[in-house]
Amino acid sequence: RFYDAYYQPNNALLVVVDPTSSSVETAHRIARLATDIGLRRVLLVANRITAPTDLDFIKERLPDLELAGAIPYSPGVLAAERDGRPLVEEADEAAQEARLALAALAE
């Protein structure tokens, strides 16, 4: 079980959510399950963000969860993943923003 293998009282769970209704509903379910097993912090990572309205959509539908960061949408990131290339090889501006967002989350 996930709980038995990984649970520690100070752990936080990062829930990655896209700006879609189905993703928001899944994030809500995951957050509820995390709370049920006693995780103290459930944080959102907004993914594939193309405009401020995408963040507004997520924040409005998941107001009780803290937004830890946002990763912009990048066709280059998608292509790199599909081709099995490291993200660091992508040079487009959105890929650079995605790298910075991921680095900020790691801190």
Q: What is the secondary structure topology, with strand pairs?
A:
Layout: H1 2-6, E1 12-17, H2 21-36, E2 41-49, H3 52-61, E3 66-72, H4 75-83, H5 93-106
Parallel strand pairs: 1-2, 2-3
Brief description of this entry?
The protein is globular.
Descriptive notes:
Helix content is 50%, strand content 21%. The radius of gyration is 15 Å and the shape is globular. It has helices spanning 2-6, 21-36, 52-61, 75-83, 93-106; strands at 12-17, 41-49, 66-72. It has a 3-stranded parallel sheet with strand order 1-2-3. Strand 1, helix 2 and strand 2 (41-49) form a beta-alpha-beta unit. The model has no long low-confidence stretch (mean pLDDT 83). With 107 residues, it is an alpha/beta fold. The longest helix has 16 residues, at 21-36.
List keywords for this structure.
5 helices, alpha/beta, three-stranded parallel β-sheet, 3 strands, 107 residues, globular
Strand order of the largest sheet: 1-2-3
Stretches where pLDDT is under 50 for at least 5 consecutive residues are none
Main β-sheet: number of strands, strand sense, barrel status?
3 strands, parallel
Figure out the total of helices.
5
Approximate shape: globular
Quote the average pLDDT. Answer: 83
SSE order: HEHEHEHH
**Distance between the terminal alpha carbons, to the nearest Å?**
28 Å
DSSP strand content? 15-25%
Structural class: alpha/beta
Number of strands: 3
Radius of gyration: 15 Å
Helix content: 40-55%
